[in-house]
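Onboarding guide, step 5: your first structure request.
Type a short instruction followed by the sequence, for example:

Predict the 3D structure of this protein.
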Amino acid sequence: MPRSWATDEGKKVKSHESSFFYKEVVFSPEYLFDGDNLRFREIDPANSVGFEYFRIFSGEYGDWVTTDLQVRFPIMIHRKKLFRNASANFNLTNFNLNTDVDRNKMDDTLTTEWRVMYEIHNAYANFKLNDGRSNIKIGHFDVPFGLEPLIDTHPTLLQTQASKNIGFKRDWGFSVNGALPSFDYEVAATLGTGGMEKISREDGSYLLSGRIGTPSSENFQYGFSLLYGRVFPSVFGTGDYLFEEALLRKRVGLDSQYLYRPYLFKVEIAYGKDEDRHVLSSLFEVDYTVPKYQKWQLEAQIKSFINDLEKGGSDDTTMTLGVSYKMTNEVTLRANYIHDFNLRLGGEEDILGFQLYYYGQ
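The system replies with structure tokens like these:
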């Protein structure tokens, strides 16, 4: 299967175990580098502990429902990054874009409130119907758009453009999905908030999405996606919101993966509108597993998101170089270097990121 060997939970799903319970620990410090100085980036929400419980229920006639519950408890050092990342993911060219962020409210939120938080990632039941050709999924799951549902970036440093194109990765709702002889498909109707704590619509939010593509077992995969809705993302699953109104969002996308010997190529492009602004996103990534030392993997990724095709310099364009080392079946070390070529809200220094990832019994 052409997906990163680092996505351990995905491998477990494909191994058809009847059930498993795995614990997870993520430690991901980041540092800012301005060419001369290196200093700790103290606003990082990525450190967490969590678990995943996966189970396939079977009967006399085979499997009938697959369930997954995956929860993280972030260890927050500071809440500023939550909001800054959220505003960046929502493609604000300025704070007056139809949603009118309340600056005072935002500043208050940035400097107050500490609380225990949790993030529900997967929380779904997928009922197998018609011999797997028209299953029904209910719960919190990947929005079927682009590469994200295929490669599962939950445990990795490199991310897709899902947060840019949708505003979040997962959402509450239901979908029809299945595997046909020539292609896989999924169409979903979800709440449009991405909420992990709350299951509710906000300001009439909703999201319709769908992807059809070649079977995930193929070395060469490609897919076509559509997305339409009024989205109102919560801030990383909390009960906080940046905006007063939902945002009309439309997308059409193409994606592809190609596993060629030790190389895995990933490409994603999407065009659409945020309200009346035309936007364009693209991603190219290549992963290389060192043949003689297969515990090592090298990664390179370029991402660009043009927030307004009619305005120059409105893009967010970054390059990421990464390396991974799989110490054991449960422990992986990762490091990456992020350089921005342009950020419309102003760039930080280059970022050096590190990760210790544990996922095991």
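Each response can be followed by summary notes, for example: Confidence is low (pLDDT under 50) at residues 1-15, 84-102.
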